[in-house]
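Our consortium's second objective concerns turning raw sequence data into structural hypotheses that experimental partners can test. To show how far this objective has progressed, the report includes one record in full. It was chosen at random from the queue rather than selected for favorable results. The single chain below, 269 residues long, was entered without modification.
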Amino acid sequence: MDQPGPRRTALITGASAGIGLAFARVFAEHGFNLVLTARREDRLQAIAADLAQQHGVNVRTIAADLADPDAPKRIVDELTKAGVAIDALVNNAGYGLPGRYASTTWDDQARFIQVMIAACAELAHRVVPGMLARKYGRIINVASVAGLVPGSPGHTLYGASKAFLIKFSQSLGLETRRHNVYVTALCPGFTYSEFHDVNNTREVVSQMPKWMWLDAETVAREGYDAVMRGRFVHVNGRVYRAMVFFVRHLPESWVLRATLSQSRKFRKQ
């Protein structure tokens, strides 16, 4: 497994809770300095102090809302001015937009696309040249099993945004691999975090059986190991790997019917 020599720095978005916070802990344990970004500045500062004390790493925080189209440039410009080079990027920030497509506003959907697609692509675009020049880089795009299975009603662009991250990761990874810049799309299923509280679907997803749930720390550790080994796509959990296998091999019409019948259990429609 790759180990950093001199201190390297990881930029992690959505780092104030859940999978993002778990990634911050994992990278700190492996000796990376950190740049943590999320909307909650007070929460970020508390996390930064804790990680710096526990692991002896430098931790910067940048409060930013990635729904703002100027946020990715502002984040990278601030780091460049401070002389901080980004060696690892974890595009983790994300959320779900409940409801059927026609019942939402376009402003809400546009913000969703900015956070889930545009910001991820732009941050990668801004840090990859430096990675290529230094012959080292690791990028984890936190996608989802939702990007590997048929879409379902409700949260209409969620699966589409995750499918984008998977294809984007594969293409970018093929372009950069020979320069020791690895890109991984991480595909967890249901994971214990604040995600479902933020999008008001906690009551709905609580109906799911416990064996379908993953914990954020395991997801992050597997993601770290996957990118260090140069895996293009990693699906977390045996249950979800089996699900993806069957989806790929069963007739699409069967899968779509099953998705429709089950979607009310995990999608607010």
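The partners drew two points from this record. The longest strand covers residues 181-187. Strands lie at 9-13, 33-38, 59-63, 88-91, 137-142, 181-187, 191-192, 214-215, 233-235. Both points have been shared with the crystallography group to help prioritize constructs.
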